[in-house]
Amino acid sequence: MVWFRSLIRFSVTKSSSSPSITPRTANPFGPYRSPTLSWLAAAAAFSSGPPSAAAAQEPPVMTPYAGLAPTKAGEKPRVVVLGSGWAGCRLMKELDTKTYDVVCVSPRNHMVFTPLLASTCVGTLEFRSVAEPIGRIQPAISREPGSYFFLAKCTGLDTDKHEVQCETVTDGPDTLEPWKFKISYDKLVIALGAEASTFGIHGVKEHAIFLREVYHAQEIRRKLLLNLMLSDVPGVSEAEKSRLLHCVVVGGGPTGVEFSGELSDFIMRDVHQRYAHVKNYIHVTLIEANEILSSFDDRLRHYATKQLTKSGVRLVRGVVKDVKDRKLILDDDTEVPYGLLVWSTGVGPSPFVKSLELPKAPGGRIGVDEWLRIPSVEDVFAIGDCSGFLESTGKPTLPALAQVAERQGKYLAGLLNKIGQDGGAFANSAKDMEFGEPFVYKHLGSMATIGRYKALVDLRQSKLNTDNLWYYNTTGGQRLISCWVPKLVHLAIGISNTRDELEEQILCGN
Amino acid sequence: MVWFRSLIRFSVTKSSSSPSITPRTANPFGPYRSPTLSWLAAAAAFSSGPPSAAAAQEPPVMTPYAGLAPTKAGEKPRVVVLGSGWAGCRLMKELDTKTYDVVCVSPRNHMVFTPLLASTCVGTLEFRSVAEPIGRIQPAISREPGSYFFLAKCTGLDTDKHEVQCETVTDGPDTLEPWKFKISYDKLVIALGAEASTFGIHGVKEHAIFLREVYHAQEIRRKLLLNLMLSDVPGVSEAEKSRLLHCVVVGGGPTGVEFSGELSDFIMRDVHQRYAHVKNYIHVTLIEANEILSSFDDRLRHYATKQLTKSGVRLVRGVVKDVKDRKLILDDDTEVPYGLLVWSTGVGPSPFVKSLELPKAPGGRIGVDEWLRIPSVEDVFAIGDCSGFLESTGKPTLPALAQVAERQGKYLAGLLNKIGQDGGAFANSAKDMEFGEPFVYKHLGSMATIGRYKALVDLRQSKLNTDNLWYYNTTGGQRLISCWVPKLVHLAIGISNTRDELEEQILCGN
User: Fold this and answer.
1) CA distance B43 to B59
2) What is the mean pLDDT of residues B22-40?
3) SS3 for A75-101, per residue?
4) Which of A79, B101, B111, B326 could form a disulfide with B76 if both were Cys (CB 3.0 to 4.6 A apart)?
5) Distance CA B427, CA B77 (A)
6) A62 touches B at CB < 8 Å
7) Beta strand A101-106 with A110-112: parallel, antiparallel or unpaired?
8) pLDDT band for position B171 (50/70/90)?
9) Is residue A501 pLDDT above 90, yes or no?
10) What is the pLDDT of residues B137-164, one digit of tens each?
């Protein structure tokens, strides 16, 4: 109530000249230095004197290279997770926080439900619907005294010292000088994901938008609407209208196909209604060097091709060799003018992953053994798109899918919980431990939406295959289902759940 | 189906060298030049040759200073509306689109429900809930051949020629060279609103965030979350934590009070749960030079002061004289370190309104007569915050409230519809017309939310005042109501509706 009283007093004594009752001449922030009002007590260096005096007194923002020191006996052992994607989040969700403190380091404070990201670009889903805050996935991170989320990126790794070096990430309008800090770990899980591949093509990073983060989807939505409005301005040439409203998608994998489908839905459903003046100028072109949806069965591919074409998406076979401000150049020198360019030609390891001095798997991923650990160093594991089985394991590299990453996160959480229960949670204490069952990946099926509320589901490799009960309309183990997006959400989640749940959800999905 | 066939053909004949069946060596964009595939036909200059040849052939983006020419007999007369706020949108909504074509020029393609903007900063409401696209407010704008919305700002006005000069607005990551165009009007409605006042204080525009647009609320939300996360980084000094989490609001009008209330709700409801590590460092300070909520009754002000203080908001009487990167300076040289600074000290006319060579009302607003027209020129009207009654009318300047703007928009739409029916819709054709009833403003009451789902409603000036039915708890014409936000929405909308609706909604609001 102190401040309430101050305010009342201020208004009564405004014209008085006595310092004791005219806080206007005193420092109204003074009371906060008293120990009983502790929240600004620490900020005692905040001065009410002239700026120069204040500058001289100002405390340093950071203690030099601070961090989280190694855990001691009596403290909880610390699992440090680098990354907040499918792999890292599933791991954190399942980690036993009675056994471990969890520290997550990521430049993104939420997990993105990537399979539905394309639907947010045109408003089918809200951005909020596809993002889940880390603190909600693992509440201990916001509540336990030793658990943290740090909005930062990892810049270095010292496996001998059991330590990672980090720096804060504050991209955006008010970019700050990054703050550096170290974190000691008992167990380290590298789940850094992958980066969009550009194959070194000039201009892609400058002019194309990827579709991997929520801010990408926001940028696509913004640009699409801006171009719709710009193309309606009086005096814009016909050619410029066509360019502005030419949406080009490069890459015919599930993301590219899903986004093309969503775009054509948007054009038919919204543009024809709400931008009637320019509806005949807007078009979608999907450029792919090989087949679209190459991981899917032939018949599903043909179905998708037919559906997309019916929705007005032009499918072009071509290889992009250069991207400029308003047009891209194919390798036969065809120029394709565009107003919006979305790039989704797959992923590869990030520069940081490439720079790590750890054994590598094929494709430059971090090499792991059957238990997803890096065998040459102690207490370090790698999961998700950044990792791959070492050639010595004899196992193939798994595809860069949410399904793989999520399953690995779940497996590793179980393994770490078991190690913790067996007394191996602290650094260097699980050296001779038996890890038990290795990680085995079972593909449950693939799915891609293709617009018009239709989706492909390919279950050839799934064990469900043998069970004919649900396949009244099957053609050799794969089939087409037509369902609404909300049901697809269940399906997509179901794919990474147990077999029983999947069966149940596919049943509901029909 | 052409492209579907092309794709199939591509994959079959990939290795063939005949141009007729290997589109890889031909231009796959060729077919779109044929007249039957008209959408890119206009883009015939898009070349498949080398870039230099293409550049030589590229058509100009704009025809030089194009625009909408004066309407002719047989066409519909054109009402041009500058702005898309409360005044302009209500006007457009009610305009008879059988009589008029409507052309709106605004740098914002939606209307913002400003009284609820503060609630979006902390997630109480979604951004989408407070924004309504212009095309939905007046569907003719997206459908009628002669009606348009232009994402542009007005840069000049020629009342003799009945013409406005405009240029496109494309602020953001891909700022384009603005395109210029002219629009001829039959009737012009200036509804450009006002700009946030900074009183010339140095640093406000650079470091403070206003709260007038959706992107302001987004920026506040982003910065608040960023600071919460940064303050948790290991090694950050206690003083820096306090600074980062010190939210300062300057200006104790309804916006400042509402935002302070929302912030303290957010701290109590979310920060204590989800950012438990730093919950003791976050604080809200509201700085006001005079009284908070000075337009409200004394007793309501005291109630608000008590409630805000109870919620942890510090109320400080002070005048800001300088704003720096991380601290502001009061006129008694007190330094106030802040992590987030929100500025809401009222509004004043924009530089463009100031520059218009039209008679002015007190405060630099565009001067209008009782019918909201600018008497010295033909067919030009001004409504909302940018306008004020000329001194010659003997009427006082109305407050810059949504309520005023909306009522003026509604009145003027009725007047323009009447003029149209009486045959005065075209330029210079209403010179000697009788305009009928002048605009009369009746204040229905004021409302401000103060957090914790509480609000003040001041109905002293309302005619409802005389009706004691709803005031079972009244103290001299004003009273406190406590209700949920969704009901407040109804109330807020109700305030600008008819008296009967207002009474009904206040009844429901209890």
Assistant:
1) 9
2) 34
3) CCCEEEEECCCHHHHHHHHHCCCCCCE
4) B101
5) 8
6) yes
7) unpaired
8) low
9) no
10) 999 999 999 999 999 999 999 999 999 9
Give B152's contacts in chain A (Cβ within 8 Å).
233
Point out the least confidently predicted range of A93-107, A279-293, A492-506, B191-205.
Answer: A492-506
Structure token digits, residue B122: 């902390």
Q: What DSSP string describes A282-323?
A: -EEEEEESS-TTTTS-HHHHHHHHHHHHHTTEEEEE--EEEE
CA-only gyration radius of chain A, Å: 28
Would you call A298 exposed, middle or buried from its count of C-beta atoms within 10 A (0-12, 13-18, 19+)? exposed
A241 touches chain B (CB under 8 A): yes
Q: Are A143 and B174 inside 8 Å of each other by CB?
A: no
Smallest Cα distance from A222 to chain B, Å: 10
Rounded CA-CA distance A263/A245 in Å is 12
CA distance A192 to A386: 6
Distance set, CA A128 to CA A124, A131, A356, B274 (Å): 12, 5, 34, 17
Q: Please give the Cα distance from A57 to A43 (Å, whole number).
A: 11
Provide the strand spans (E) within A349-397.
366-368, 380-382, 387-389
Hey, are the CB atoms on A236 and B179 less than 8 Å from each other? yes
Chain A residues whose beta carbon lies within 8 Å of the beta carbon of residue B313? 3
Residue the block writes with tokens 């797959």:
A346
Q: CA B7, CA A305: separation in Å to the nearest integer?
A: 9
- The dihedrals phi and psi of A247, each to the nearest 5 degrees, come to -95, 115
Q: Token pair 């001829």 is at which residue? A: B184
Q: Which of B11, B32, B31, B30 is nearest to B22 (CA)?
A: B11
Angle of the B402-421 helix axis to the B86-94 helix axis, nearest 10? 30
Give residue A177's pLDDT.
Answer: 79
Q: Chain A within 8 Å of B174 (Cβ-Cβ)? A: yes
The per-residue pLDDT for A148 is: 96
Round to whole Å and give the CA distance between A84 and A89. 5
- At A171 the pLDDT is 63
Mean per-residue pLDDT over chain A, rounded? 80
Q: Residue A114 is which amino acid?
A: T
Instruction: Rounding to the nearest 10 degrees, give the CA dihedral for residues A146, A149, A150, A151.
Output: -170
* Residues of chain B neighbouring A69 (CB-CB closer than 8 A): none
CA A149 and chain centroid, separation: 15
State the pairing for strand pair B478-482/A327-330: unpaired
Question: How far apart are the C-alpha atoms of A482 and A31, rounded to whole Å?
Answer: 66
- Domains (range + CATH), chain A: 23-59 (no CATH), 67-194+349-421 (3.50.50.100), 204-348 (3.50.50.60), 446-509 (no CATH)
pLDDT in tens, B351-385: 999 999 999 999 999 999 999 999 999 999 999 99
Tell me how many degrees the CA angle B198-B204-B210 measures, rounded to the nearest 5. 75
The mean of the pLDDT values for chain B is 80
Tell me the C-alpha distance between A340 and B377, whole Å: 44
Closest Cα in chain A to B168: A230
Chain B partners within 8 Å of A337 (Cβ): 43, 46
Q: Does B56 touch chain A (CB under 8 A)?
A: no
Contacts of A264 in chain B (CB under 8 A): none
Residues 6 or more apart whose CB falls under 8 angstroms from that of A425 comprise A77, A99, A100, A186, A187, A416, A419
| A28 vs B316: CA distance, rounded Å | 7
Helix axes of B298-310 and A2-12: crossing angle, nearest 10 degrees:
150
DSSP-derived pairing of the beta strands B366-368 and A148-158: unpaired
User: CA distances (Å), B477 to each of B181, B299, B481, in order?
Assistant: 52, 11, 13
